[in-house]
Write a structure and sequence with these properties.
about 350 residues; alpha/beta; eleven-stranded mixed sheet; globular
């Protein structure tokens, strides 16, 4: 398998990207190559600094970079030789089968959807962001690719998310819920109610590869057996960033409180192992990134502040998706849906 890595993507590029590639290549013999895109002389210098000498790491020149503050779609059109655009071209041309980027999310989504196109039967691509909960991982889908979704798009997310959970996360019976303001059927907006009608129709017809839990609320992300939580990208992105900010604030407040007197400092030292375990469980670096499901190729979008560990795990996530042939299985599951009769809700 060949993976294209946007070496200039992220706040700490390019060094952390090369370090992540170095670390994964050192432990994974199944990867044929990691192709890093960016200004080639700069990449070679960074490779020398971090000791990236594995011959499976190759470089492709890309003279432009899409900044994190730039408009993704517009900048992608203007900067045709950007590192993210060149990486997407490698997948498009068959030189790589997967793309990983910690750069501008809008540019990554645009590059993937425009250059790679959608899988057969996919109405709209979506970002599946992993959220740790008591039962494993719940993928919030969509977490920002499609702000103005339709019920049909969420049906596609349910299919894609459940296939990903089954094949990569090894969940035998994925549970899917729709984010709402209450569990009762009468709760929610016209959009969520129409989505539920559509989902129920396909579950009852036996075409849906998941168990439908119905409406779910914010606390269900962490406390309920839930593998995929459906929402539009606008809502999902707000939920995701709110959770990230809450986790950071809680960590900061805990540290401040523990430092207030010697007794608390001693208690913190005694509980150091437990605090580290919780941090590791909630740390995005442990997951690496979020798959953009629905495009014709494996695409993993990482956090802008990714470390070498996060990049390594994002590359590993891409390798796992390729190994388990997620995209062909998504197309197969969607074919069953499109072959069945749709209800009135659209």
């Amino acid at each position: 398998m060949n993976i294209a890595l946007d070496a200039m993507g992220g706040d700490h590029a390019p060094l952390v990207n090369l370090e992540g590639a170095r670390d994964l290549l050192a432990e994974n013999s199944e990867i044929k190559s990691i192709i890093l895109t960016g200004p080639i002389e700069q990449l070679k210098k960074a490779a020398q600094e971090c000791g990236l000498t594995d011959p499976r790491a190759t470089f492709v020149d890309a003279t432009e970079v899409v900044g994190m503050e730039e408009s993704g779609v517009k900048t992608l059109r203007r900067k045709k030789n950007s590192s993210i655009s060149v990486a997407a071209d490698l997948v498009k041309n068959g030189e790589a089968q997967a793309l990983v980027s910690a750069g501008n999310t809008g540019a990554a989504v645009a590059a993937a959807t425009v250059k790679l196109r959608l899988l057969k039967g996919v109405p709209r691509a979506g970002i599946a962001s992993p959220m740790p909960n008591e039962f494993g991982v719940c993928n919030l889908l969509d977490a920002g690719a499609n702000p103005e979704a339709k019920p049909l798009h969420l049906l596609g997310y349910a299919i894609m998310g459940s296939v990903y959970a089954r094949e990569v996360l090894k969940v035998s019976d994925p549970h899917v819920g729709v984010m709402s303001n209450g569990e009762e059927e009468e709760k929610g907006t016209a959009f969520t109610k129409e989505t539920m009608v559509l989902l129920k129709h396909h579950v009852e017809s036996g075409n849906a590869p998941f168990t439908l839990r119905g409406n779910v609320e914010g606390h269900d992300l962490f406390q309920t057996r839930l593998d995929v939580c459906l929402c539009d990208g606008f809502t999902g992105n707000i939920v995701l960033k709110s959770c990230e900010a809450t986790a950071k604030a809680m960590s900061k407040w805990m540290k401040e409180e523990f430092k207030k007197n010697p007794v608390r400092i001693a208690g913190a030292l005694l509980g150091k192992g437990a605090f580290k375990a919780v941090k590791d469980r909630t740390n995005y670096e442990s997951y690496g990134g979020s798959p953009l499901l629905g495009v014709n190729g494996v695409v993993i979008i990482s956090h802008g502040g990714s470390s070498a560990l996060a990049i390594k795990n994002a590359l590993k996530m891409a390798a796992e998706a390729l190994k388990h042939e997620v995209n062909p299985k998504i197309e197969e599951a969607l074919a069953k849906i499109t072959a069945s009769t749709e209800p009135a809700a659209k």
